[in-house]
Amino acid sequence: MYKILEPIQVGPMQLRNRVMYLAMAKGLSTPDNFITDRQIAYYENYAKNHVGLIVTGACITFPDYPSKLPMQPGIYDDKFIPGMKKLVDAVHSHGSKFLFQPWHPGITAYGCDATEVKAVADFSLEEIKELQNTFVQGAIRAQKAGADGVEVHIAHNYLLEQFLTPLFNKRTDEYGAQNMENGLRFTTELIGMIKKACGAGFAVTTKINGNDFNPEGMTAEKAAKAGPILEAAGADMISVSAGGGLTNILGMSADGRSPEGWKVPLAEAVKKSGVKIPVMATGSLRHPEYVEQVLAEGRCDMIGMGRGLLAEPEWVVKLEQGREREMHHCISCMHCMNPVLPGVSGCTVNPLALRELEDIVLKEDGKERKVAIAGGGPAGLEAAVTLAKRGFVPVIFEKKPEVGGMELIGSVPDGKSKLKWHIEYFRNEVERLGIQVNAGKEADGDDIAALDPYAVFVCTGSNPVIPGSIPGIKLPNVKEVRDILADFPEGKGKQVVIVGAGLVGLECGATYASRGNKVTIIDMLPPSDPAATSTEQMLAMGHAMAAGIDIRMKHKLLEITQDAVKAENLETGESVSIPADEVVLSMGVSANNGLYNTIKDRFDRIYNIGDSDKTGLIAEAVQSAFDTAAALD
């Protein structure tokens, strides 16, 4: 038996296993902070799938404070208790435990100007007591709703962490950061107040940072000092995280550049401090074999997953049933950080994420009817797997020697290797379900007709946009970005110009730069409005800038020569020449719908899926494929 599946005692709570769903602010409440049916279905799904402990994301506790996250659950008024209770009861009905997370952002400004928030030093002693009492009232409401406890959030650069270190705390009184005891005084007093108000049967767990990426902030050594102090104050568990919006946002939720379990050493430092209460590790934990090793080595007592469970809510159940190879692991793509509308998946690899209220159940009515699938990329593979689960017999035609499509190529740039985890999932499922794959075979209408298929799914992806009117665009030193990623060139010291500052161009540029090349990226568009830019795009731009890439927006490509790129600065009208040993075209894509248009009148049930219909993200292609395959009748 896996150690991760063993029960564990956390204060007054007996947990069925050692897995915790971590707090994520998914914005599923109403605008005025009431719990919704969609929210209940979301959390209940984790309980149905045997997650031992579940906690909400940041609960609105101080409604009059200018900084707050939108559409989060409120615990600042008794009017919220009925909805809170409905949520708790739903989770409890499946045997899981549930915590609320009272929250104050401090100087982290959400939806307000930075001048409107208050620093730690700005709170009087009287205001500190008022803050503590308000936190306690939130905990009391959680208890009245039947919750098993609360998580005291001392991490991610929010108010309680801002008391901990000189990085944020400039006070000189007993709540100053002269030492860890004083820095934690607000928190230790709060733990005692909650224990007194709610009794010994109500759990108070804590969450701290082990790294703020700044020597004045939290470090593993400081977290180790904090552990025994929190335990002495009455904390029932310590979860260890890192970063935050004020120090390093990727420390809180890492992208693909951070390896699996990168925060485990931070939890290990707290564990080695000698505390007897459970210590929980976090940090891109995905694979059962890795998690089991961490627990077996005594580096922590529990593991926490947020995005890992969003991607695979059945993680625990599949582990219990020996179905590890059926797990689709989070690839740290950051897509889930983008706003999500109802009916749209919030995860690249899980087309049902945040759609739990729809209660989609695959009908097993395929009756071994054949379905031809043209294209073995993410859309074609998702369609095939979904259809096979329904009892259809999908047959894939893939023109390349192996399946994976653009996701396989997309795994090449620095920080993108986790995309291979998604491809591995598909390959495992193709093998398990016995799906026929005709690799190295580009399907045509006659190939498909020879199957006499019940339905046809066209998932042929996209074509690169290459404007033939640009002088020099066919020179031997000019390559399309897909060709570069398919066989990334070795060598350093080259001058590389990339045309196109989209996601792929930025990622390709950062990879060139990391290998010792001088990179310039040009794009005729103006800089993107951050409010309208995806998380993935913003992070890629940040990585490119950090790599020292010269990014020139509002520059239009005019001509390519054997040793330079000529462009027009659209702001000044000036013509510029940029030295270039290699030129990479990343100018966007268009739908590869030729096959669909050729054969659409030959078959009664034919569907154009993914980029071959409408170019977009992998997440959009996967959901489109799943939804179409699930609805086929």
TrEMBL record:
Per its UniProt record, the required cofactor names are: FMN; [4Fe-4S] cluster
Which keywords describe this protein according to UniProt? Flavoprotein, FMN, Iron, Iron-sulfur, Metal-binding, Oxidoreductase
| Name listed for the protein in its UniProt record | FAD-dependent oxidoreductase
Source organism phylogeny:
Bacteria, Bacillati, Bacillota, Clostridia, Lachnospirales
Q: Name one Pfam family in it.
A: Oxidored_FMN
NADH:flavin oxidoreductase/NADH oxidase N-terminal domain location is 4-325
Query: Recorded GO terms, molecular function?
Result: FMN binding; iron-sulfur cluster binding; metal ion binding; oxidoreductase activity
Q: Where is the FAD/NAD(P)-binding domain?
A: 370-596
Highest taxon of source: Bacteria
Q: Which family does it belong to?
A: In the N-terminal section; belongs to the NADH:flavin oxidoreductase/NADH oxidase family.
Q: CDD domains of this UniProt entry?
A: OYE_like_FMN_family
